[in-house]
Protein 1
Amino acid sequence: MFWTLPTIMTWTRIVAIPLIVGVFYLPIAEPMRNLIATVMFIVFAATDWLDGYLARKLNQTSSFGAFLDPVADKFLVCASLLVLVHLQRADVFVALIIIGREIAISALREWMAQIGASKSVAVHMIGKVKTVVQMVAIPFLLFNGTLFDYIDTGRWGHWLIWISAVLTVWSMVYYLQKALPEIRARAK
């Protein structure tokens, strides 16, 4: 199941990372770099929904795909955050919160799976909302301009990425609370 259409789409999110980063080193005007990186991020981020849909529709779900999909998402988000910090469009503190949470929850989920309790840390609505807010904030910050002569994407992106950081902490607390009974049982 390494080379099904849904898995290939997931791989594209990983391949996209150096492409998005590389855009900011092109010898073109900043507004054009911003636009190219934004469009690329949106297109590649959309494959997250599409690959899952196709995997179910084509009956090509696999444990490898279930593993790779969230890894690709996390790579894309973390790399984009690092670019935004480098460009001084996102605060280091926000990036540390979001990246730190991703590492902590990934480790928690791995441990819970090893002890047979992965259902207690299954994806919850708060995690999905956090992801949606991130996936709106990041392209707004990448674009960093005025959209439709009205929307200041830098300002909106700034607020949305902070909202995302709050949701990130909230979701981490939620997952830790769900895992706590298992953690306590194993700590004895």
Protein 2
Amino acid sequence: MPLPSSARALKKPRLDDEVRFLRSWIEKPLHMGAVMPSGKLLARKMAHYVDVDSDAPVVELGPGTGAITSALIERGVDQKRLVLVEYNPGFCALLRDRYPQAKVVQGDAYRLRDTLWNVLSAPASAVVSGLPLVTKPMLTRLRLIRDAFTALAPGAPFVQFTYAVVPPIPKSLPGVSTEASERIWMNLPPARVWVYRKD
């Protein structure tokens, strides 16, 4: 039985985003965290760790087409608090159109200190990352989390998802507490959310 036109209209943006993701992944597979945008359950789980009552910025790394961004807003994060760091210029244009009150920064999240040096007006209340960390050397991952902690308020979370079975950043970092969600089996592929806080 065909979908009613209203249901088809609701599904179209998701399908368009999947096509955009797939095209970008084919062009540059190691720059993309996934072949498809994050599923809703995964995006909601990541947004769950962000303090909605704070006025401080929330930095999202690698927002792509905005699956996690939408979950942050649905959770109650004011769009004006969002600082979206995206490498792909096409995705930047899309994000500016979809989230006109957010600050979209076209830049390299793996050089986070340089990318954010004149962007944040206050320490961030969270850094939420959709970056493909496990495709990067460990030194690159460690530099990223070091730079993220520099941008974060004390005790604020660095939230990262991964499809891998091992943590994207070692659990044994000195002075850093680590928390992991249950595996989200309904996401394709299944994923887990890791949260790191500097003690």
